[in-house]
Every structure is written in structure tokens, then in C-alpha cells.
Amino acid sequence: MRIGKLLFLTILLGCNILYTQNKQLLYDFIEIPQALMVNPGIKADYQWYAGIPMLSGTSFQFGSSGITVIDLFANDGVDFMTKVREKAIYGMNIKDELSGTFQMEILNGGFRGRNNINNFYSFGMYLEGDAIGYWPKDLAILGFEGNADQLDREFDLSHFKTRGELVNVFHFGVNKKIDNNLTIGVRAKIYSSLFNFNSTNNKGYFVTTEGQNNFFANTLNADMELRSSGIQEIVDDDFGNVSETLLKRALFGGNLGLGLDVGLTYNLNDKTVITASVLDLGFIYHTKDIVNYVLKGNVTVEGIEAILPEALTNPSSNFWQDLVDDIEELVPFEENDESYITYRPTKLNASVRYNFGERKESNKNCGCAYDLVEAPQRFKYVNSTGVQLYAINRPRGSQGALTAFYQRRFGNSIAVKTTYTVDKFSFSNIGLGLNIQVGSINFYAMVDNLLAYKNIADTHYASFQLGLNIISWEKK
After folding, report:
1. Are 301 and 331 in contact (CB under 8 A)?
2. What is the radius of gyration, based on Cα positions, of the chain?
3. Exposure on the CB side of residue 364, measured as CA atoms within 13 A
4. How far apart (Å, rounded) are the C-alpha atoms in residues 255 and 304?
5. Of 223, 61, 253, 98, which is closest to residue 158 (Cα–Cα)?
6. What percent of the chain has pLDDT over 70?
């Protein structure tokens, strides 16, 4: 129980870790098969593709909206604790976050239907880890300043919000061309959670007031819970068989859930295209290796009560230990193993794209069945430009980003995409994506927030993606 309390209080006073998932460079980059993963309804002109296992799609993103490394560690002559107090303790607010995600494709492939060439099927498995921690402002002030000069101030316990997980995802999708203007897609997912933790619906306060039997009285009114699955078994095993345990959970041995992706592409006219997708409409039901820590109730403690001068003549009295024992007895701290459901961070993408610069050799819109073009006629237009909207549900409400993009194709071998994104992390996020097609070999690399790389310690956001595939574009 004491270990559980220590874990809960440690997380309560400072655990802020990773989470963010926008892939604006990859979105609608139709030369890359992984674009199907952010919109199952793209125009997929491949005959088939196969991702190189473990290399076909790797991405990492990190964001910090409130503070950077350089804010605290710059050699500017300002005392470190002064920086902590001004930049972090009082400089950040409860909507500031430290967040990030990584994703690694283990298997990814797709093929066109034999009986209906308008259908394209994709399948695969990927590992995804993500988490988010919001700045617990009141709790940070309480931990840094104490309550000595904070009489009658209610420290809000709802400032503490965090969640994170590691999950393996199995997926199967169908992409269907309805006609020359509309393509739709849907993808089913099975989630196998390796571990999860979350604490997002906390309420209550801590306040110090004048006491009746002592100088001060401390009141805790709390309704807090930290839920976890898949962690205690690893800790109890002293991390001895972590890889074996995680592998078993990744292959349907973890806490399971279901999800769905949907998307579409629609041609308003020959040059203007709109797209949209909704990703991870799903949940995970956690029933295995559950440990939940609950702090719920109302208690007032007036500290050490000693009768003077008699107490001073009794050296065996341990006032502080008596106080600690009283608090442990009074504070309504509990532990349980109740099952729970978590909902996936659902994401929305939408874009408007305008194509221009028609190639002389491109085919005209013939109105025929699905046309798998030969390599010299693969793409009709050289240039594409437009805007994209992104949104994701978060513990403190929806969060969005707006992106303007431009894409240029150089023959059928090279395509370059550049983006400018505005979100809570940056108003100057310029990204660059490169796709190279050499025969059937496809390689892509993408980097976000390029201006920040001149001083990575001062950046609020960093992201990269890369992958290697084999693609067949030709007719059979």
C-alpha cells in the first residue's frame, strides 16, 4: 500500500509526458502507400504494394507548448531556480502540455481485387505509443512554494490530467472507387494494449485555514483516480521478462478493443479535390493486470497537537510520526482492480486541393472503369496546392491545426511536398517531405518544423517520418 501511495503522489506532483499525432506532410501524399493510414479513402492507383517489415513506416513526434529546454538551461546569468519559478511554475498554465507519440509499422501491405479492380485491400500491424501530460499549475505551486503563505487558497486538484499507453494495432481496410469522382474507404482495427495509465477526471481542492485547536488546519477534499493496466505485473517481476511479456500482449494477449477508420476523396471538378477522414473511432476494454489508485473523500487535519510544557519533558514523544500516522489513517486512499474502458484519441482530417500544370502526355477523363495508368502517365498534374484542417480529441477538449501545402512532381520518380502549419505549438512550422520512386522501390522521408533545427533545445515541436516500400503500378 505504501508503494502504491508513493507512486500516486509522485505522479500527482509532477508526471508530464508525451503525446501528439498530426501527420500533415503524409496526408493526401498519394504517391506513398502509408497515406492510406491517414485517409483510407485516397485514390489508391497501386496494383499492389508491400512495406519492408519494420522499415515501411516509422514516425516520431514531440511537442511542448509551454516551455523549452533553453528556457531553463540557457547560460544567461539568471539563477536556475528563478527560471523555474518564472518560466515553469508561474509561466505555464493548465492547458500547456508536454506530449508526443511514436509509431512503427511491423507489417503493411495491399493488393487490388481480382474480381473487382475498383476495390483495393490493405492490411497490416503497427505498434503505437503515446501519452500526454498537462501542466498541474496549482499542484506545482503547492509543491514549490508550500502552503505557509497561501492561507485560504484552494489548490485545484483538477489541474492534474495525464494519460498514456502502448498498443499494438491489427488492421484491414477496403478502398473502393465508386466512380471517376468519388473514392471511399473504411478500415477495421483490433487493438491489443500492452499497458495503459490515465487520470483525467479529477476534482477537489486542498486548502489551509486557521485552526481551532492549532494554528492551522489543512483540508483535503478530493475525488481523484489513477487507473492503470499492464504495469503492475512488469513491476512485480522486477522487469525481468519485459520483452516476453510485452510480445505476448502485442499478439492478442493484452487488453483488447475495436476501432474504425473512414475516409473519402471527391473531385469537385477536374482540378479541385476535397478529402476527409475520421481515424480511431474506437475503445479498449481493460480487464487484465488492473491497479487503480483512488483518493476520494473529505478530511481536515490540524497538524501536531502538543500540550506544553509537559510535552517537552517527554523525549519519547514522536510528534511528527504521530502526525504521519494520523494522516495515513484519515486520508481516504484506496486501491482496487476494477475493469475500465478507454476511448481512443479520435482524429479528424479534411482538405481542399487544387491541381494545376497538366502534363501533355496525360490521359483524358474517359469515364471508363478503374484506370491503372502506366508509369509515364501516372499523374495528370505536376502541381498541387491547398489547405488541410486537423483536429484531435484531448483530455482538455479538442485541439486543432491548420496547414497550407504545396506539392511538386518531377516526372514519376520524385515528388516534394512543403507545408506551413499553425497550431498551439508553433506559428512558424514549416515542413518538408520527399518521395522517391526508383523502379518498384519507394522511399520517403519527412521532417516538420525545419526552422527549429537551428536550435533544437529551443523548439516546442519536432517530428519526422520515413519508410521503405515496394510498389507495383502496372496493369496485369
Report:
1. no
2. 27
3. 1
4. 46
5. 223
6. 79
Chain-centroid distance of CA 400 in Å reads: 13
First to last CA, the chain: 65
Report the alpha-carbon distance of residue 157 to residue 224 in Å, rounded.
8
Q: What is the pLDDT, as a whole number, of residue 301?
A: 75
Q: What gap in Å lies between CA 132 and CA 342, rounded to an integer?
A: 14
Rounded to whole angstroms, how far apart are CA atoms 414 and 409? 6
**Alpha carbon separation from 180 to 110, 184, 246, 339, 353 (Å, rounded):** 21, 12, 45, 48, 16
Backbone angles phi, psi at 186, to 5 degrees: -145, 145
Q: CA 44: distance to chain centroid?
A: 27
In this prediction, residue 13 carries a pLDDT of: 35
Whole-number Å distance between alpha carbons of 188 and 6:
40
Q: What type of residue sits at position 172?
A: F
Instruction: Read off the pLDDT of residues 177-220 as tens digits, 9 standing for 90 and up.
Output: 999 999 999 999 999 999 999 998 999 998 888 767 666 778 88
Which one-letter amino acid corresponds to residue 32? Answer: I
Residue 159's φ and ψ, nearest 5 degrees, are -65, -20
Q: Which residues contact 374 (CB under 8 A, 6 or more apart)?
A: 473, 474, 475
234: alpha, beta or left? (left if phi > 0; alpha if psi -120 to 50): alpha
Q: Global pTM?
A: 0.81
How many CA atoms within 13 Å lie on the side-chain side of 359? 17
The single-letter code of the amino acid at 415 is A
Cβ atoms 288, 230 nearer than 8 A: yes
Q: Which three cell numbers stand for residue 150?
A: 497561501
Number of neighbouring beta carbons within 10 Å of residue 190: 16
Complete DSSP assignment for 41-60 = TS----SEEEEPTTTS-EEE
Euclidean distance between CA atoms 165 and 131, whole angstroms: 6
Place of cell 498541474: 136
Contact 268, 274 (CB under 8 A): yes
Distance CA(349)–CA(22), nearest Å, equals 9
212: left (phi over 0), alpha (psi -120 to 50) or beta: alpha
Residues 177, 378: Cα–Cα separation, whole Å: 17
Let me know how long the chain is: 476
**For residue 465, how many C-alpha atoms fall within 13 Å in the half-sphere facing its CB?**
25
C-alpha closest to that of 176 among 168, 185, 167: 185
What parts of the chain have a pLDDT lower than 50? 1-20, 304-312, 362-364, 366-376, 476
